Structures are given as C-alpha cells and as structure tokens.
C-alpha cells in the first residue's frame, strides 16, 4: 500500500523543496561539501578546455559531480548515525567509515579521470 501524500505536480514541487533544503543544510553544516562544491565549480570551465570531445567533457563533469553526490549521501549516513546516539558502537563506526570510504573512492576516480585526460589531451602522454 502506497504511503499517503501528495501526488503529481504537488509531489514534484514538494520534493524540489526538500532537495533545496538538503542542499542548504549540506552547505551550512558540511565543510567537506562546501570545499568539494567550490572546487568543482572552479574545475567546470577547465572541463571544456581539457576535454577533446563532448564525451570527454561530460565525463569530466560527471565524475566531478559524483564526488558531491557521494559526499551528500555520506553526510546523510552520518546524520542518521549521530541521531541514534553519541555513544561508540561498532556498527555506527562501520557505517561512518563506509561512507568515508565511498567519498574516498569517488575522489580517487575523479583524480584518475582528470589525470588521464590531462595526460592524454594536454601533455600528450599516450
């Protein structure tokens, strides 16, 4: 049975409001989100210069925004864990560590893709 609530355009409008509220919360409460977002906004113009094709440019943009997406999800996990309690629990620590690992992997993937395309298109390495 479906959860009662708004449908159609009303649901979309409410969902958009919740998303904006989440982005505002991330900006106000998460230093890593702010740092990554600012870095990505600075890198976006470079994606158009580094990418030799539309595919490459979109890849650079997509992997960059992936970092922000994963950071938001990590922050959500941390908020839920912190809501449950501040006492140390192995599963709480594991959840936070897994979220951190996901951000690390997204950052590593970002570095790999940007590095490969800079190496190939600007430095002529291969």
Name the helix and strand elements from N-terminus to C-terminus, one letter apiece.
Answer: HHHH
| Strands, count | 0
CA-based shape: globular
> What is the first-to-last residue Cα distance?
56 Å
CA-atom Rg in angstroms:
18 Å
Q: Report low-confidence residues grouped into runs of 5 or more.
A: none
Strand content: under 5%
Helical content (DSSP H or I, runs of 4+): over 70%
Number of helices: 4
Summed over residues and divided by their number, the pLDDT gives a mean of 94
Structural class based on helices, strands and sheet pairing: mainly alpha
Main sheet makeup: none
Folded structure, characterized:
It is a single chain. This protein is mainly α and 126 residues long. It contains four helices and no strands. α2 runs antiparallel to α3 and α3 runs antiparallel to α4 (90-122). The longest helix has 33 residues, at 90-122. The protein is globular. 10% of the residues are buried. The model has no long low-confidence stretch (mean pLDDT 94).
């Amino acid at each position: 049975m479906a959860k009662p609530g708004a449908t159609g355009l009303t649901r979309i409008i409410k969902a958009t409001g919740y998303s904006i509220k989440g982005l505002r919360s991330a900006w106000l409460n998460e230093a890593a989100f702010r740092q990554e977002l600012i870095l990505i906004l600075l890198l976006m113009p470079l994606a158009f210069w580094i990418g030799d094709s539309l595919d490459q440019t979109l890849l650079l943009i997509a992997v960059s925004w992936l970092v922000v997406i994963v950071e938001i999800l990590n922050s959500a996990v941390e908020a839920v864990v912190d809501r449950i309690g501040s006492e140390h629990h192995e599963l709480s620590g594991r959840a936070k560590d897994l979220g951190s690992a996901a951000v690390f992997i997204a950052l590593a993937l970002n570095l790999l893709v940007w590095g490969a395309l800079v190496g190939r298109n600007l430095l002529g390495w291969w």
